[in-house]
Amino acid sequence: MFGVLFPNRSYPMDISSFAQIDTFHWILDMNTFVGEAYDQIREMCIFLLNGLSLPPDKALAVYIQSPGSAFEYCGAIYTGCPSAVLALQWPEPGGQMQLSSADSPPLSAKIGVSVEDLASLPALNVGHQRRIEQLAMKVGENLFNFMQSFCSVDGNRLVVPMDILDRWFKKFQEKAKRDPEYLKSFML
Questions:
Q1: Is 0.85 surpassed by the pTM of this model?
Q2: In sequence order, what DSSP letters do the residues of 91-123 get, joined into one string?
Q3: How many CA atoms lie within 13 A of 165 on its CB side?
C-alpha cells in the first residue's frame, strides 16, 4: 500500500518494515531503525505504491511519538497527492520514560501510519507549515534587530528613518546573493 524513505538515511522501505496493529494502523519502532538517535531523523518521504490501494476519500496520516509522549500528527498523503516529504519535529519525550521496569521493554520513538477520512484531517503537511512559521519569525527578528540599530527615542516612541525597510531589504538581498547558505541559516 505505501512505502517510506528517510532521505540520506535509508533505502526505500515498504509496509513490511512496519508492525501492523490492525487493518488501518501501522507502527515503525525507531529503536529497531536508528536506536536512540531517532531525533536525528528530521524528515520522511512517504508514498503510495499504486493509485488503487487507497479509496479517493481516504488518506494515509502520519504521526510521530517520542519516548513517553503522545502521538502528534505531522502530515498525510492521498490519491491526489500520492507522495510527500514530511518534516519530523519530534515532541519532547514524556515523563513516563523513567518508569519502565527491567521486565518491560524500553519505551521508544515511533512513527505511526493510519488510514483516515481525508476530510477529517487538518493541513496535509504540518511540519512544512511550522518551518514556514519559523522562517517568518527569524526574518522578522532580523528586520527588528536591523531597525533597532537605527532607532532613536522621542518621548515614548521609537523613531526610525523612513527608508529603513528599503535599506534592510537591499542588505538582505545582497547577503542572500553573496552567500547561498545565508537563507538556509534561517531554517535551522
A1: no
A2: PPPPGGGGG--SSSPPP--EEEEEEEEGGG---
A3: 2
